[in-house]
Amino acid sequence: MPLLAVEAELTEQAQRAMADPGDELLDERLRLVLLCAHPRLSREAAAALTLRLVLGISTEDVARLFLQSTATMAARLTRARKKLAGETFAVPSGADLVDRVGVVADVAYLAFTAGYAPGSGSDVVRADLAGEAIRLVRVLRTLLPYDDQELAALQALMLFQHSRRDARVADGALVLLPDQDRSRWHHDEILEAVDILRPLTAAPPAPYLLQALIAAEHAVAASSDTTAWNRIVARYDELLALRDSPVVRLARAIAVAEANGPEAGLAALEGVALRGHRLPAARAELLARTGDPEAARASYDAAIALCGNAAERAHLERRRALLGA
Length: 325
Description:
Blueprint: H1 3-19, H2 28-36, H3 43-54, H4 59-65, H5 70-84, H6 94-116, H7 127-143, H8 149-162, E1 169-170, E2 173-174, H9 187-197, H10 207-220, H11 229-242, H12 246-260, H13 262-269, H14 278-289, H15 293-306, H16 310-322
Antiparallel strand pairs: 1-2
Helix pairs in contact: 2-3, 3-5, 3-6, 4-5, 6-7, 6-8, 7-8, 8-9, 8-10, 9-10, 10-11, 11-12, 12-13, 13-14, 14-15, 15-16
């Protein structure tokens, strides 16, 4: 099948899926995700192609999710589309379906991330995209002939985070976790996530499970001050042992700062290299807490220059302005 025909069919089916969403076994959106998770493609290429063609996330935002430049991601997407040329659009089943589950889980988590913390635009959160990612995982779990523990943990993780969507916005502005009105959290979703997670607590450590356990600590704490930060740091240590990445190291450093002070957090950030604004933004916040406003201003300036999301940029500008008060 020619390349343009492949893309045209994907686009046409994606439009039908968006016009008539549902939770049927062969849900069109999920079917397309499974098709893009083809063994001809690498895990990352399959996830990137699905995010771009099926879920409509911009190439720029897909590149941010994979910590790559837009040009590099555009080239990868082109190569991935070419590899699908000539393939039949049959729904996978049996062992082939099971083999693709991990790719689909990665796609769902990346789609959720794009909705929960958009890399560009003016939205604080894109709840419809995040909700669609959760729905994909729900439907996929009904497809499988077995209970996939990491898929269950992923669903719990996303529910914990999605439950905070209304509290993350106040008058159009971003509200960080410590300052959120917890009465606005969706506690029914938190309870659902806890129920999903409870049977998994004795399971061997795995990436989504550890992240879900971290999210659970935030969800059950009465406030940021009563959060079990030492337990969260320990979970991040386990996660680093399984999947070391700059994103995990950044999150761990923030938890270290909460547990042991900003100086310890800054020490944990040493050597971390990460594209985008979140690393200089975290460093700026910790420098401000240590009483070094000049260095904090410089880090805020770097973060503001790199931030593509208008709501996050406005938040960073407000934080920087407080240094001069």
